[in-house]
Amino acid sequence: QFLMANKLDTAMWISRLFTVYCSALFVLPLLGLHEAASFYQRALLANALTSALRLHQRLPHFQLSRVFLAQALLEDSCHYLLYSLIFVNSYPVTMSIFPVLLFSLLHAATYTKKVLDARSSNSLPFLRNLLEKLNANQQNILKFIACNEIFLMPATVFMLFSGQGSLLQPFIYYRFLTLRYSSRRNPYCRTLFTELRIVVEHLIMKPSCPVFVRRLCLSGISFISRLAPTVA
């Protein structure tokens, strides 16, 4: 009754579980490397479906207008719909599947707990303990996802020069990264950029750091800072 009363949430729950399943079989290619590539695509397509359903839930009345597009781009679900489309037809990159896998796992765990509560307050204690542990590590998981989002930017450039990526991919991914940086709901990408800058500045200001390395890092920090969008 709970699942039927919340059909859209249940559909997203099933698609997230399927995303976790496909992502796991890509990361751990138990069925062979050829099959792993197909699971990579399936995971991203399932994530695109979940993101589209979530976006529909957040903005139910679609309009072909500039205002609607601006509102959609503020939603994290729109960001990850774009993310899935960026990588779904690209060369499989293990780093790119982790954000999809972990976000799906976190959201699926939250809804699984609701399903268990609807069934009985004491049902499946072992599974409940696993969900509690996952929830306790949520902040670390979100930081890890943000770290993946950031380091995928140079990875897309490397893929371009190695012949495994398209010319447009780094530019589209840069747009995705600016949306994540400006996210209203998830500040972890912004936080990680700040933390990485502090760590790098601390290391290069040590007397043992060569001058040319210090100048190179400071130039890089200045360049990245100019590319960062303004956050209200």
UniProtKB/TrEMBL annotation:
It is a multi-pass membrane protein. GO terms for cellular component: endoplasmic reticulum; membrane. InterPro entries: PER33/POM33_regulator, TMEM33/Pom33. GO terms for biological process: endoplasmic reticulum tubular network organization; membrane organization. Pfam families: TMEM33_Pom33. The chain crosses the membrane at residues 12-33, 80-106, 150-174. Keywords: Membrane, Transmembrane, Transmembrane helix. It is found in: Membrane. Belongs to the PER33/POM33 family. This is TMM33 protein. The gene is Tmem33.
